């Protein structure tokens, strides 16, 4: 009927719009209540309820009469019970009655008296168990009943005792907290009195515990019931007053703190309650749950501190005693034999030694949970009996660590899980893992030299080869490696391993943890440790410690420390041996056993080979590590392994592959890395995924309606593919992938033809210069927009105009105007003129202040006076630098034009006359202008010359003849540098001839010298002798004979493995939020800095700032190149964090100019960086010529 009325209303509503939800409900309710059907239903329900109530009353009266007859010997009840209409409708009852009366409870109390016959007591207890808990609770005699039950718990009759426990369990399950609290406290008090009573026969430690003994069974049942409630109570006690929770906590701690007056002999010790709790809850789960929430943790810790600290003292004492036991045992004699003799049989008897171990595990877990929290740590130090000194936090943690390698080995049991979960070393390691994961706790307790030395003690012993040391098993070594790896994965722990507690200490009395771990790992790889050589678990030990090293060398600062050990070479050598071993495995012959054995051996070797490749691959996490990886000759195999891992995960999920994002961008920033990515199929896979997203759409998305035309330059469905290709856009990598290749420009393209390389993408999506290409695209507009955006970050008409203006207009943020990418609101949505032919419309040009015409004031004259020659070279150099810094801070704008040029020329000339300042030797050069005119320049250089001249004219620095002058300068530079280059046989395009890119540094000096070619080349020749030339003038060290042969062959420039490595190291230390933003975005900071430094910040900074960048690096040292990059990231910090949230950080940093950044504004900050980091950064730059290990 209701549904019919609803349909009528809805049909009426469709005709008139005045009806809402509330109106419909009111209308249907009124119509229903007035209907005949509703009245008939209510009358039927009333008759039925009257019959039920009458039946209940009759049944109740019958039960009442029967109960009175059964209680003839008892006093007559003073009041009777009558059931009214508000009786409970619960079907649970007291002897099938419907209200638990006051008289009945009194009757049960009388029947529970120990003097009553057994049958009467049983029946009374059965009646109590059958009664509704709420009725029992509401009776006035509830408190008396609790007391009676507590007394009855000691009844020797096991059946009666079990029935009382059943009532307790039922109360715990069905009753509210204030009722269960009384039951719990009474049971806890009963147990406390039970253990304190001399009449009860509590087992002793020497006798052990027989869990088939009836007395022990009853005791364990009571303890287990308490423990089960302990674990459940935290889930609901926050909803009740705090006093209830505190009473439960206090009664528990009071029970667990019970101690007997012990005999002088430990073997005659009477077992305390804590032993039985450890039997039923070995890992102290109850304590873990009580400490989880602040609500209960506060009460627990307060009571432990004020009244029950003895409980913690006993736990510490137990750990100390167990450790002393382990130390006195030789080769697991006692415990080992005991365990072996009981391995293959089920036992119901716990020996005293086993009880001690179970209590130790309980104490270990309890203390481990306690140390997580600040207030828990404040309970230390702990004063123990028979011990002079108190046990501090550090003492306790050292004891835990020593237990790992002093504790006995667990025998190989049938139940592997049991051995793993309860072995001493595993349990201690699990506790230490938890503490490592809690940063505050780890910093306070673990990250100190004493703990690290304790962890490294067995490693020192094995490296020394002494046999009188404790027998440290391979399993213990793996556990120690696990803890060390967790140290190395956190910044505070890593710093401790690298530098020790005092980073600034000049003492080198002992090696820090990182050095010891690296030495040990190298010896493991070389199998140079006799005590464990030949062990079956040796590969696992190797893998564990290489993983620790991997955590270290995958960071810039960690790699700096580990480089001398040549781990990359040792790991590569181990990988080569493993690969050869894998090839030599014989083909399995018929027979299941042989096939199984060979297959298992093959799987183990393959797993070890993959681990080694993964370890090598992680060298690519840093710029310098990438150079080391390339030197091993295994970069192709590592990248192939990475692609296989990526492909496997891609089959499972389309989510971004975790862990390899930064590695890909580091690898893709070099020519050799790009080649490896191409050969592995990685790039082809990315392009296939891109093409599928653009042209076909995802095949796992159900299409319910046509997709809307994207309005953004990059559709969200293609965002991941777009960012993956952006990561390949560094110039060395891009040149290697597309250099010297022609566009296919086919006459016909199949719709099923998918691009497989970058040049195909350019042909199909960007250079759409034929009808065939356009017709081959299903989504022409979206795909073409993507193509333009992928390389210039733009697309189609409005975006195309932006692209053309951008590539034809050079300048910093305040030197050029770029048209917007989107239409504007209003009558004229796009007022910008289209640029399709030269000259560029003037509306895109800004008026620039001609810095060359700045009037020299007295400050400049004073500054220039300091740059005149002096007899005292060292003093003169320092004086010039001080004056330069002073002017950069006070009047930076005057350091430009002719004044800056004169300063540079004088300073460089003076430096080159000082042998100590010269990094490269002098080279005799006699070529004339006529002799170099026949030198050829690449098309890239010719294009760069045109851009330089156009920019110079815009700045008012060059004349019309400047193009030929700059061309001559670059030809002289090519001839001059060729004299210092070595021949390289390489498949890399970038190493087959001269420098592949344009010489932006030489072009910058040409502009600074106002187009004077002779002065420019003369300054470059002198400058080429300085260390700064290796990092500012990139062609200077291209295939240079002054670099190590393997460095030249790698094709990786010193700027990449030198400056950019330092940038990432300093960025992590100085701007952790920015560094984390890069990690979250999945690419490396070096990928952004590389184009900045390669093109001398052209198009990123205004001309005056470019001059200040060059001058700062020349006057103050090449390490200022690093500090300026850090200053830029500091300037962009808020923007970086914002674009990390919008997931377009790569696009923002690659595309946007550095708005608002001035070198002079950050001079104070850079001076601080210099004070803190110059020794490391400059030393690293000086080592560029050194052949690394």
From TrEMBL:
Protein's GO biological process:
non-motile cilium assembly
Q: What is its main location?
A: other
Instruction: Identify the taxonomic lineage of the organism of origin.
Output: Eukaryota, Metazoa, Chordata, Craniata, Vertebrata
Q: What organism does the UniProt record list as the source?
A: Carlito syrichta
Can you give the residue ranges of the BROMI middle region domain?
Answer: 104-776
Quaternary structure per UniProt? Answer: Interacts with CDK20, which promotes CDK20 stability and function. Interacts with FAM149B1; may play a role in cilium assembly.
Protein known as: Protein broad-minded
GO CC terms for this protein? cilium; cytoplasm
**Where, subcellularly, is it found?**
Cell projection, Cilium; Cytoplasm
Per the database record, which ranges form the BROMI N-terminal domain? 1-69
UniProt key word rRNA-binding: no
InterPro entries membership? ARM-type_fold, BROMI_C, BROMI_M, BROMI_N, PHAF1/BROMI, Rab-GAP_TBC_sf
């Amino acid at each position: 009927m209701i549904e019919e009325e609803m349909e009528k209303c809805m049909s009426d509503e469709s005709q008139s719009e005045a009806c809402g939800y509330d109106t419909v409900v009111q209308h249907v309710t009124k119509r229903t209540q007035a209907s005949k059907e509703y009245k008939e239903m209510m009358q039927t329900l009333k008759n039925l309820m009257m019959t039920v109530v009458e039946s209940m009353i009759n049944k109740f009266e019958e039960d009442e009469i029967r109960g009175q007859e059964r209680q003839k010997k008892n006093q007559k009840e003073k009041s009777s019970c009558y059931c009214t209409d508000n009786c409970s409708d619960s079907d649970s009852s007291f002897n099938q009655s419907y209200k638990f009366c006051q008289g009945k409870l009194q009757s049960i109390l009388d029947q529970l008296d120990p003097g009553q016959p057994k049958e009467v007591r049983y029946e009374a207890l059965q009646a109590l168990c059958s009664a509704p808990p709420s009725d029992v609770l509401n009776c006035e005699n509830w408190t008396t009943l609790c007391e009676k039950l507590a007394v009855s718990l000691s009844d020797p009759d096991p059946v009666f005792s079990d029935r009382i426990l059943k009532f307790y369990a039922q109360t715990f399950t069905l009753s509210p907290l204030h009722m269960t609290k009384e039951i719990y406290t009474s049971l806890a008090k009963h147990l406390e009195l039970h253990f304190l009573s001399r009449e009860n026969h509590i087992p002793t430690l020497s006798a052990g515990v027989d869990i088939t003994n009836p007395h022990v069974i009853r005791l364990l049942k009571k303890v287990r019931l308490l423990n089960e409630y302990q674990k459940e109570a935290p889930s609901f006690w926050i909803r009740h007053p705090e006093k209830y929770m505190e009473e439960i906590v206090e009664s528990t701690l009071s029970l667990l703190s019970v101690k007997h007056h012990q005999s002088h002999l430990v073997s005659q010790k009477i077992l305390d309650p804590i032993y039985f709790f450890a039997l039923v809850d070995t890992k102290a789960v109850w304590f873990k749950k009580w400490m989880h929430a602040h609500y209960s943790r506060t009460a627990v810790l307060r009571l432990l501190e004020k009244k029950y600290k003895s409980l913690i003292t006993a736990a510490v004492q137990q750990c100390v005693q167990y450790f002393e036991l382990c130390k006195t045992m030789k080769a697991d004699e006692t415990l080992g034999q005991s365990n072996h003799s009981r391995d293959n049989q089920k036992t119901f008897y716990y020996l005293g030694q086993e009880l001690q171990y179970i209590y130790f595990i309980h104490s270990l877990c309890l203390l481990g949970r306690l140390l997580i929290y600040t207030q828990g740590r404040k309970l230390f130090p702990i004063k123990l009996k028979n011990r002079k000194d108190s046990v501090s936090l550090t003492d306790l943690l050292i004891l835990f660590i020593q237990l790992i390698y002093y504790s006995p080995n667990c025998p190989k049991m049938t139940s592997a899980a049991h051995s793993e979960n309860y072995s001493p070393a595993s349990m201690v390691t699990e506790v230490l893992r938890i503490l490592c994961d809690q940063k505050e706790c780890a910093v306070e307790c673990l990250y100190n030299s004493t703990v690290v030395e304790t962890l490294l003690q067995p490693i020192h012993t094995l490296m020394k080869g002494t046999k009188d040391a404790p027998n440290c098993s391979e399993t213990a070594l793996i556990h120690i490696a696990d803890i060390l790896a967790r140290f190395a994965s956190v910044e505070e722990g890593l710093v401790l391993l690298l530098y020790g507690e005092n980073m600034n200490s000049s003492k080198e009395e002992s090696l820090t943890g990182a050095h010891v771990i690296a030495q040990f790992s190298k010896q493991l790889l070389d199998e140079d440790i006799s005590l464990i050589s030949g062990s079956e678990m040796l590969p696992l030990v190797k893998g564990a410690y290489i993983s620790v090293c991997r955590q270290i060398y995958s960071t810039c600062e960690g790699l700096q420390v580990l480089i001398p050990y040549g781990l990359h070479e040792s790991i590569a050598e181990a990988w080569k041996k493993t690969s050869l071993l894998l090839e030599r495995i014989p083909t399995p012959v018929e027979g299941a056993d042989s096939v199984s054995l060979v297959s298992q051996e093959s799987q183990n070797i393959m797993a070890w080979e993959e681990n080694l490749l993964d370890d090598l691959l992680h060298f690519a996490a840093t710029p310098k590590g990438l150079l080391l990886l390339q030197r091993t000759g295994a970069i192709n195999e590592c990248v192939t392994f990475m692609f296989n891992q990526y492909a496997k995960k891609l089959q499972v999920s389309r989510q971004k592959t975790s862990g390899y994002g930064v590695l890909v961008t580091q690898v893709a920033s070099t020519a050799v890395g790009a080649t490896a990515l191409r050969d592995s199929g990685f790039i082809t896979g990315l392009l296939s995924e891109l093409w599928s997203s653009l042209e076909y759409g995802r095949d796992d998305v159900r299409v319910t309606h046509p997709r809307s035309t994207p309005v953004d330059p990059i559709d969200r469905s293609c965002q991941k593919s777009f960012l993956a290709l952006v990561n390949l856009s560094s110039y060395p990598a891009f040149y290697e992938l597309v250099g010297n290749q022609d566009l296919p420009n086919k006459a016909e393209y199949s719709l099923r033809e998918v691009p497989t390389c970058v040049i195909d993408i350019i042909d199909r999506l960007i250079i759409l210069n034929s009808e065939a290409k356009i017709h081959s695209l299903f989504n022409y507009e979206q795909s073409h927009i993507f193509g333009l955006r992928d390389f210039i970050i733009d697309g189609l008409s409005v975006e195309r105009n932006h692209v053309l203006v951008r590539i034809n207009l050079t300048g910093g943020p305040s030197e050029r105007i770029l048209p917007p990418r989107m239409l504007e609101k209003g009558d004229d949505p796009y007022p910008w003129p289209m640029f399709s032919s030269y000259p560029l419309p003037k509306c895109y040009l800004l008026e620039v202040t001609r810095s060359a015409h700045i009037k020299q004031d007295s400050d400049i004259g004073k500054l220039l006076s300091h740059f005149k020659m002096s007899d005292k070279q060292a003093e003169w150099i320092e004086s010039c630098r001080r004056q330069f810094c002073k002017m950069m801070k006070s009047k930076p704008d005057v350091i430009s034009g002719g004044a800056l040029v004169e300063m540079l020329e004088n300073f460089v000339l003076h430096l080159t006359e000082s042998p100590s300042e010269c990094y490269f030797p002098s080279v005799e050069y006699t070529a004339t202008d006529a002799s170099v005119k026949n030198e050829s320049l690449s098309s890239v250089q010719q294009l760069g010359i045109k851009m330089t001249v156009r920019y110079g004219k815009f700045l008012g620095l060059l004349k019309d003849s400047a193009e030929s002058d700059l061309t001559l300068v670059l030809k002289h530079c090519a001839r001059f540098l060729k004299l210092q280059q070595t021949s390289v046989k390489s498949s890399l395009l970038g190493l087959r001839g001269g420098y592949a890119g344009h010489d932006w540094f030489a072009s910058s000096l040409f502009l600074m010298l106002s187009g004077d070619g002779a002065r420019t080349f003369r300054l470059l020749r002198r400058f080429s002798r300085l260390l700064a030339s290796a990092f500012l003038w990139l062609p200077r060290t291209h295939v240079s004979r002054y670099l190590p042969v393997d460095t030249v062959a790698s094709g990786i420039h010193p700027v990449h493995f030198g400056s950019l490595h330092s940038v990432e190291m300093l960025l992590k230390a100085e701007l952790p939020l920015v560094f984390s933003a890069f990690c979250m975005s999945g690419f490396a900071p070096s990928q952004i800095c590389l184009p900045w430094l390669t093109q001398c910040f052209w198009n990123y900074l205004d001309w005056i700032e470019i001059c200040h960048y060059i001058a700062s690096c020349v006057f103050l040292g090449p390490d200022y190149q690093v500090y300026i990059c850090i200053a830029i990231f500091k300037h962009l910090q808020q923007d970086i964090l914002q674009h990390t949230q919008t997931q377009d950080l790569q696009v923002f940093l690659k595309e946007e100019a550095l708005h608002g950044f001035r070198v002079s504004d950050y001079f104070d900050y850079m001076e601080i960086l210099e004070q803190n980091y110059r020794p490391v950064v400059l030393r690293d730059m000086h080592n560029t010529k050194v052949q690394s290990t």
